[in-house]
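Polyphosphate kinase
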Amino acid sequence: MDTAPFRIAPGETVDLAARPTDVSQGLDDDALEAILASNAEALEELQERLYAESKQSLLVVFQAMDAGGKDSTTRHVFGPINPQGVRVWSFKKPTPIELSHDFLWRVHKHAPGAGYIGVFNRSHYEDVLIVKVHGWASGETIEARYDHIVNFERLLASGGTKVVKIMLHISKDYQKERLVRRLEREDKHWKFNPEDLKERALWGDYMAAFETALARTSTPEAPWYVVPAENRDFRNAIVSQIVREALEEMDPQFPAPTFDPEAFPPEAIV
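Predicted structure tokens:
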């Protein structure tokens, strides 16, 4: 699979309306499922090497509009990996204690430690998305936050954490389909939040906020990918490919033994 078309180059002008939300790259469902399975096998081995090496870490950030598929993507891509080596964190409305600190305080403490894969379901980007759209911070504050975010992610990178950020890109029509589905199925009622309709009414403002955030914060150390998310098989496969490529670039290695294996022949163990 070719991940290059979805990566945002540093300083690139982003026009989300011009970017597709439904892509297959000529692959049918069977092929996409095969790719996902192959990547899952590779990720399992890479995660074991990362955990054993315990020198690097990987942070995968998911952002999307409501019904964009963050939970489902996390389940399909990271579900097959040993849960001991993966930490998933969902960022909700800040608590009073979190609001009493700088906006990155609650995020930094959940960054993955050496040997781990961390997954953020929403993230510090909420502070330049929903906060910006609703005017909960001044324009000057928002402008400063772009720089703070870039510096924060550079700090993580310098400490051995590779950062990959993925926007799951859907259309407004597709979001409507998913929200309607939540209303029509009793087993999906729990996922419906009337507040989502208020946010949906601000779709244009959110797209503008996303475009600015993507353009201002996609860096060599922490690139953004805009992944078409309406074809869910493609979405899962391409995200797994992005994660696999990131780990392969990190190239974690099993540590050398601290003892002489030849000094312990199997027949000597009783």
